[in-house]
């Protein structure tokens, strides 16, 4: 009885445990499902985040484009004497500024100017930077950007660009804030883009460039032992000064401190620590996304030397010489701005080192930002007006749409390929990068190839001479890597192949371009159909590697079809040899057309008889010597004639095999086939070819 009760209790317990277990199981399942859904949501959100970020970037650049790629801001320094009367009459939210001549305080003395924005004397660095930020950020998207500070001495250029010199972010200048932001942006987008940032700091003093970050003190003392040319070895408007990798804002601040110590400053009547030179901080950005696309751009942050009149600054001797140089270079800068504003065909960038250095950021396809600085004091009115007029002129310049310095994987492949392409095969212009303009307009060139710089810049130094490609082979040389063959094939598909006039064409007959004609239709066929095979590229260009194919190339082909082709190919080769590879693509096209026609005829068999006769007459039929061929041909003809006389059947031009439905194999082949083993492979290839 107790046992039965116990048994029943156990049964109930088991049933309830089972139920509980089932409940737990279903709960676990629903929890897992929920977790799965959450993971899915999260991954969708992550994907969406990247998409939205990309869209945001695109929209941001669109807004920038709509706003215009040249921005002019005016900043008014606080008056040194709070009691003194200021010349600033009105600052509008829309960027208008009214200044008043202290000598003519009535209506005629008012001058109105329009800029993108005017910052009053109470504006802090943090107020100014947000308007700069969007433009500066474009550099991370691959645009060249230039921000320069202009104004008379003591008007606050250095204050804006470098800050008052403190360590806190509040005391940062545009330079530090911009770099800080670039690092922030680089960190935010590290999942999709990896950036390398390098900086360069130079000074243009008395129209000579010197490296502000040089370790050797001899390089930073005037007169300079080493004067850096404005163009480096690559002909790029880039000072040949040291390039330093930076990983955070701190690195930049340290470098800026070093550069400050090396800068040429002097005392003028208007500023006791006046910059006597133009300082240029160049930030080189090199980014690579997850797909292998590359951007390379640069940001110039320029603190110009002061634009005051020589008599006002009361400088003499060396100071006067400095001032004259400064004024000259600023007037050349004005000349460039005027030429750009008037859309002149010639822009005089080469008149000074400053304009030469900034040429890739001033005109054309860069984004430019100018800070016009003015002092509010009445005695600076003349200087203020000239600064504001200059700024007004700059704002009237219409820059073209900013150009993205981005290179897709395909373009990079083409470039790599081009480096390996023999120089003799390239037209003169082919040596330019896709971003470069013809030499005639080199002066206006921008978007220079900073990748070269990164090739050259090691971790901490900048080598002057670009490394030449490890090897270069001529068109007939055997390339060292099979990959180059592959690249040729890939490149020919690229939509950008138009850049390379000498790249292999997309035509299926590209194999015919080479001086080595294809050995047999199948080899041509292979090179057309299997472009990705590393060796296929070579087949059309190089001598065959396998001993068999080598034999084929040296002697007459075994297959009569290939013999027929050979006959044609010999012709093609002759034509090719008459017209070297350096001939125009037009010549190449007609050559390809001829080759195509030949192949077409062979495929259709329309010209079969003639072809056969020609083949018999001209092309060798066996891999042996001509003598042997002649013998063999005569013997076979005699045999055929004898057979005809014995059987009374008229002479056939087609072989027995072809009459049985096989390919159009000429009789000669049948003869040969009867005398030796049937060349199965050749028959097969013929069928495939047909
Ligand atoms: N916005 C500002 N707020 C406070 N102080 C400022 C501001 N702008 C300039 N100053 C002060 O004015 C003085 C002159 O400024 P700064 O040296 O930047 O002028 P500058 O245009 O670079 O002159 P120079 O061309 O002669 O070097 C400095 O003492 C600086 O601290």
UniProtKB/TrEMBL annotation:
Residue ranges with Polar residues bias: 475-512, 520-562, 570-592
Residue ranges, compositional bias (Basic and acidic residues): 606-616
UniProt keyword annotation of ATP-binding present: yes
UniProt-listed SMART domains: KISc (SM00129)
Domain of life according to the entry: Eukaryota
Region (Disordered): 420-592, 606-639, 655-690
Cellular component, GO annotation: microtubule; microtubule cytoskeleton
GO biological process, any: microtubule-based process
PROSITE patterns: KINESIN_MOTOR_2
Domain Kinesin motor residue range list: 69-397
Keyword entries, A-Z: ATP-binding, Coiled coil, Microtubule, Motor protein, Nucleotide-binding
Family, as annotated: Belongs to the TRAFAC class myosin-kinesin ATPase superfamily. Kinesin family. KIN-14 subfamily.
Protein name per the record: Kinesin-4
Organism whose genome encodes this protein: Capsicum annuum
């Amino acid at each position: 009885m107790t046992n039965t009760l116990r048994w029943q209790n156990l049964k109930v317990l088991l049933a309830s445990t089972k139920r509980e277990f089932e409940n737990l199981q279903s709960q676990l399942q629903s929890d897992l499902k929920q977790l799965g859904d959450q993971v899915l949501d999260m991954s969708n959100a992550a994907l969406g985040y990247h998409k939205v970020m990309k869209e945001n970037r695109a929209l941001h650049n669109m807004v920038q484009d709509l706003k215009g790629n040249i921005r002019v801001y005016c900043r008014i320094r606080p008056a040194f004497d709070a009691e003194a009367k200021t010349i600033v009459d009105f600052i509008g939210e829309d960027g208008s500024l009214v200044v008043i001549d202290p000598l003519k305080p009535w209506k005629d003395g008012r001058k109105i100017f329009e800029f993108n924005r005017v910052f009053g004397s109470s504006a802090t660095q943090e107020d100014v930077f947000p308007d700069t930020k969007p433009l500066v950020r474009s550099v991370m998207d691959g645009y060249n950007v230039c921000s320069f500070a202009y104004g008379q001495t003591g008007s606050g250029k250095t204050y804006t660009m470098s800050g008052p010199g403190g360590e806190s972010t509040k005391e940062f200048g545009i330079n530090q804030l911009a770099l800080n932001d670039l690092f922030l942006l680089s960190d935010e987008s590290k999942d999709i883009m990896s950036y390398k940032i390098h900086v360069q700091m130079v000074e243009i003093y008395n129209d000579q460039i010197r490296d502000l970050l040089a370790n050797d003190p001899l390089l930073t003392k005037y007169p300079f032992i080493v004067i850096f040319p404005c163009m480096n070895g690559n002909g790029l408007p880039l000072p040949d000064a040291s390039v330093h990798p930076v990983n955070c804002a701190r690195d930049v601040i340290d470098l800026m401190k070093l550069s400050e110590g090396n800068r040429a400053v002097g005392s003028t009547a208007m500023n006791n620590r006046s910059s006597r030179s133009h300082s240029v901080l160049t930030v080189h950005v090199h980014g690579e996304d997850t797909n292998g696309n590359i951007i390379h751009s640069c940001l110039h942050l320029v603190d110009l030397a002061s634009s005051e009149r020589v008599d006002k600054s009361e400088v003499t001797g060396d100071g006067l010489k400095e001032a004259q140089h400064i004024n000259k270079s600023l007037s050349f800068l004005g000349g460039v701005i005027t030429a750009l504003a008037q859309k002149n065909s010639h822009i005089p960038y080469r008149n000074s080192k400053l304009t030469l250095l900034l040429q890739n950021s001033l005109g054309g396809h860069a984004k430019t930002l100018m800070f016009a600085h003015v002092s509010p004091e009445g005695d600076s009115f003349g200087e203020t007006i000239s600064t504001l007029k200059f700024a007004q002129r700059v704002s009237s310049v219409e820059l073209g749409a900013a150009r993205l310095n981005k290179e897709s994987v395909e373009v990079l492949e083409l470039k790599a390929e081009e480096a390996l392409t023999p120089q003799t095969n390239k037209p003169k212009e082919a040596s330019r990068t896709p971003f470069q303009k013809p030499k005639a307009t080199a002066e206006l060139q921008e978007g220079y190839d900073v990748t070269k710089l990164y090739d050259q810049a090691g971790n901490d130094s900048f080598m002057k001479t670009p490394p030449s490609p490890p090897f270069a082979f001529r068109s007939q040389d055997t390339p060292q890597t099979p990959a180059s063959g592959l690249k040729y094939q890939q490149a020919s598909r690229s939509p950008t192949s138009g850049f390379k006039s000498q790249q292999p064409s997309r035509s299926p007959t590209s194999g015919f371009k080479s001086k080595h004609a294809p050995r047999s239709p199948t080899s041509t066929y292979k090179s057309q159909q299997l472009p990705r095979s590393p060796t296929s590229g070579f087949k059309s260009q190089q001598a065959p590697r396998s001993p068999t194919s080598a034999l084929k190339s040296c002697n007459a082909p075994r297959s009569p079809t290939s013999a027929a082709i050979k006959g044609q190919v010999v012709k093609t080769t002759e034509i090719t040899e008459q017209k070297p590879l350096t001939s125009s693509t037009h010549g190449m096209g007609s050559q390809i057309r001829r080759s195509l026609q030949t192949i077409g005829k062979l495929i259709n068999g329309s010209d079969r008889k003639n072809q056969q006769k020609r083949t018999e007459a001209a092309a060798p039929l066996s891999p042996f010597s001509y003598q042997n061929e002649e013998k063999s041909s005569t013997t076979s003809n005699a045999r055929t004639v004898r057979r005809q006389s014995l059987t009374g059947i008229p002479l056939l031009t087609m072989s027995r095999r072809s009459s049985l439905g096989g390919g159009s194999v000429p009789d000669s082949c049948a003869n040969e086939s009867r005398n030796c083993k049937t060349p199965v492979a050749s028959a097969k290839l013929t069928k495939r070819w047909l």
